Amino acid sequence: MPDSDKKPKYYLTTPIYYTNGLPHIGHTYSTIVCDAIRRYKRMCGFDVVMTTGADEHGVNVERSAAKAGKSPQEFSTANVAEWRKIWDELGIQGDEFIRTTDPLHARTVQWLFKLCRENGYVYKGHYTGQYCVFDNAYVNDAKAGDPCPDCGRPTETVTEENYYFKLSAFQEPLLKLYAAHPEFIEPESRRNEILSFVHGGLRDLSITRTSIRWGIPVPDESPHVFYVWFDALTSYLSAVGGPDYELRGYWPADLHLVGKEIIRFHAVYWPAFLMAAGLPLPKQIWAHGWLLMDSAKMSKSRGNVVRPRPIVSVLGLDALRYYLLRETVFGQDGNFSYDALVTRYNADLANGLGNLASRTLTMINQNCGGMVPDPGKEYLKSEKSVLRTASRATIRGILGNKESGEKGSYNTLSFSQGLTSIWALISQVDAYLVNQKPWELAKKPEEKQRLAEVLYDAAETLRIATMLAHPVIPAATEKIWKQLGQGGKVGGQRIDHLEWGQLDPGTRIGTVEAVFPRADHKESIERMEAMEQDATKPAIPAGAQQSAGASPAGAAAPATAAAAAAPAVAAGPVKIGIDDFTKVELRVGQIQSAERIAGADKILKLMVDIGTEVRQIVAGIATAYEPDKLVGRKVVVVANLAPRKLRGVESNGMVVAASVEPDNRPVLAGFLEDVPVGTRLK
Prior knowledge:
By secondary structure, the protein is of the alpha+beta class. The chain is 39% helix and 18% strand. Strands 16, 17, 18, 19, 20, 23, 24 and 25 form an eight-stranded antiparallel sheet that branches. A hairpin with a 4-residue loop joins strand 18 (600-609) and strand 19.
């Protein structure tokens, strides 16, 4: 019998991401949390499957594909390839990656529809009303052109024949479910939100469309295709066998992890679909908060996204994982800033865990022949060590205690709380070493026993902290585990069997190397911001690129759908349609003032007259231009970018410059003739 058949199974899912663009750290946050849970559950002895995937259908993809000159299948396949590449780079690819274009998924959706229809919960009707193509949701009580209440963008009026799901029949069954299983929706704030929504009454739900072609067809009902939520939600079941889910044994899901904006679809629609089909329900749905940038939700339309690659390139993946799970209380909104990220990296990772590992293992190398010292059996059995007491309390607080009924912070997804307690333990070890002064004990032969006790205590606490932190920072903890001389992989250890005293005296430690080199605060932020700007520069029309390589030198613009798909396409110039180019509003501007920004060597704050107003624009040209020599100069300005902050200074536009090789020196674009300020470039 395979070992996995002997283990209890645990199945969890990320949201199935809408792949009309590329992932930012909001998507990354959801996936990292799921990955941390997966690693933790495996260390607890579970046979774990984590599913992530791609929602490829819908009118947005259909329209973006047309603009890119591709079929929807070609367009979505290119985007999915880039998503999978990024998840692979970040080590968070999951065990199953389900695509809504997979044949098994199509069969599962059609099977679920058949079950619901046979049980009397599906009927045909007509719909006329407002629809948000961006959120893939009908908007009740809205008039033509009214904004979507979720994203604020204009709704569209649609009239079409639909199949409807009798959601109204499930008000009482859902309320009974929530009452019998209060843990079904977490956190409590989201549970209360759903209770209020369902108590207010449920309307029947359209589950097919006839106005689009890019979707899973309803069998024998052309031109009907399944509406996004009946399609996308079913992917959780498709990933673990679909109609044959019982053979694999992972359904029902133990946990659906979602963002708070889609909790209604998961906590109302999805269990109702499954009830109608007579299928088992997921055990829990957890809705986390948003990652905010300047107090606003990150989104491509707002132009305020932060991508994971620049952060990982500069500080490493573990830095991003740790920051996201430590800084944000799970279930609540969190705020992202590069400044807080680098501060947390240096304080907690470089000066905290990294420094403790380096100093402890170096002292063992120097004073104990490179082997874990033996404090003696009596000492190991005694309660003399203050770190023994502290470690036990930390283990209990994170893993829980069956006898007392304490659940533990990891089991309640309270990662910030759990990490806080681990780093409090690390601080205790630091204080312990300062107080005990092992470097002084090493000079006194009569203190050899005490030296062994102190260094054993420090090394054993380091081992415990390493195991507890592994689900969150897997790469660094594997390195420390090896330096501690421990066999196997730390991820293969049973964390639920973790106890004080399991570090064997006499173990030869490995080569001591820095795990978290200290980062230069200013330089790290500038590098990440520069890489983010490079990633978000708008594509330049074919034929417009000069030998110097025209590139914008100011605040970043959101990538277009065509540009977003470009990394997955064969190398060569990216071509866009004229409609894409005309979206970029280029105007003649004149610089009124220019000044340097404190703490930033590469960017300047400009006040630029664009004819209708004077704009504040941050531009990355400080290495090539003195501020006083820019006053009065006419420049090309991208005038319709969403505002964003760079080094705490708001930028309302972008100046355009060439990037001259070999050192990417910025050269401002200008005019040979006199052109009035405010003139639009076409």
